[in-house]
Design goal:
single chain; alpha+beta; 4-stranded antiparallel sheet
């Protein structure tokens, strides 16, 4: 019976891996098939759209490259490291120890749960080599290759509640109970600093007047990355290759275990 269960789990993993592989392939094809346009070229296309009487209706799926620049209100300040940036995100995980009693014996097991996660949604801009600007609407999207500025573990100070170093607020009393004690917290933060060169694949529009690139209105791909297009393509090609090998191996092994288990 155990072999059949393991076999089924491997088949499920193969199916999940297949869909991830297909998604990776579609992203790769989107990058290959989408033209990279300069901001002046996009302005020219918008001008043609305006001449045809479609003011505010310009839409163009494209790739744009430029240096990150703060919004008019100024740079953001990240929550944990207090660094100037145009985008930041963080995640806080709680590590805790659970006490269980089995056959009259006390057993300890370590677990991790997400306590908080955040990705800034404020817009910023890209500036090209000629100094021309286009807005970026991140829509809460975490950029690939963002700089990690914080990766630390803070042990719990004990007690029924603990003050978050991040917000200065109290966490609820669930942290330390008789059979569920907090070990500590993992803090992670990522950000994009002003001047960081970015690659963006998305839809350019002029709904608010100036050109902005963001998530496509129709189903499509939206990628923000602190990497070059060549690096992104290479990473996805390698990921697709490894997923393909894993899917085939998991499917074959899972089928073999189910067959063997059924014949036993």
């Amino acid at each position: 019976m155990a072999l059949i269960v393991i076999g089924v789990l491997l088949l499920v993993a193969a199916v999940v891996g297949f869909f991830v592989m297909q998604s990776t392939k579609k992203e790769l094809h989107a990058m290959i098939g989408t033209e990279t346009l300069s901001i002046p070229e996009l302005e020219q296309l918008r001008g043609v759209s305006d001449e045809l009487g479609a003011q505010g209706g310009f839409r163009k799926v494209t790739e744009v490259v430029g240096a990150a620049h703060p919004r008019p209100e100024g740079a953001l300040i990240s929550e944990i490291s207090k660094s100037e940036c145009v985008w930041y995100g963080y995640r806080i995980d709680r590590q805790y120890e659970r006490i269980e009693y089995r056959e009259g014996k006390k057993r300890y097991s370590k677990h991790t749960e997400k306590v908080a996660e955040f990705s800034s949604s404020e817009g910023y801009a890209l500036v090209d080599a000629q100094g021309v600007t286009i807005g970026v609407d991140p829509n809460g999207t975490k950029p690939e290759g963002a700089e990690q500025t914080v990766n630390r573990f803070e042990p719990s100070r004990g007690g029924g509640s603990q003050e978050f170093a991040l917000f200065g607020v109290k966490l609820p009393d669930f942290l330390n109970t008789g059979e569920n004690s907090t070990i500590g917290f993992d803090y992670k933060e990522w950000l994009i600093r002003p001047g960081q060169r970015l690659y963006v694949l998305g839809e350019v529009h002029d709904r608010i007047g100036p050109l902005v690139i963001g998530k496509p209105g129709q189903p499509g791909h939206f990628i923000i990355a602190a990497r070059t297009e060549d690096e992104l393509r290479a990473a996805r090609t390698q990921k697709h290759k490894y997923l393909a090998i894993g899917v085939i191996a998991a499917f074959a092994l899972g089928l073999a275990l189910i067959t063997f288990g059924a014949l036993r």
